[in-house]
Design goal:
By secondary structure, the chain is mainly β. The chain has two helices and eight strands.
């Protein structure tokens, strides 16, 4: 199998002459986008960072990157370990899944999660009434983003 095809999904899977350089492969499987950083203390802020390009895959059903936003949790918080990158739908749609929500704690917005599940036609949710829904999490992964000092 071609290393270029295996690492990027591009080209011919049987072209053994192609050589992939590690840095090139990484660049081809990521994209630059705005990411909201959710620090443990202080205010939220945005950075432009490289994130996994989930939308380049023919297996990703909804391929519009503009329909998603990204959140980065650099250190451990109530709901996530450090270095967690979340891809979240902007449009709120009904259905089961893991959702993000804001809760104001001591004057600062904090990120929490809740789940929605179905049992027949009944919807069950762990959302609290004072939480502001952000959206459904479509992807969650460990990812290192270089942050400004």
């Amino acid at each position: 199998m071609s290393p270029v095809w295996f690492s990027t999904g591009r080209g011919d899977p049987h072209d053994h002459q192609s050589v992939v350089h590690r840095e090139d492969a990484w660049q081809q499987t990521t994209m630059l986008t705005k990411v909201m950083v959710v620090p443990t203390e202080g205010d939220l802020y945005d950075v432009i960072a490289r994130v996994p390009d989930l939308f380049n895959s023919p297996y990703h059903a909804y391929r519009q990157p503009s329909a998603y936003r990204f959140f980065y949790v650099p250190e451990m918080v109530e709901s996530f370990p450090g270095c967690t990158l979340l891809t979240v739908e902007k449009e709120l749609r009904p259905g089961p899944g893991l959702f993000l929500a804001w809760k104001t704690v001591h004057g600062h917005k904090r990120l929490f999660t809740f789940t929605c599940t179905y049992s027949g036609l009944e919807v069950s949710s762990t959302q609290q009434p004072d939480w502001e829904v952000v959206g459904r999490v479509r992807n969650m992964d460990y990812w290192k983003i270089e942050l400004p000092d």
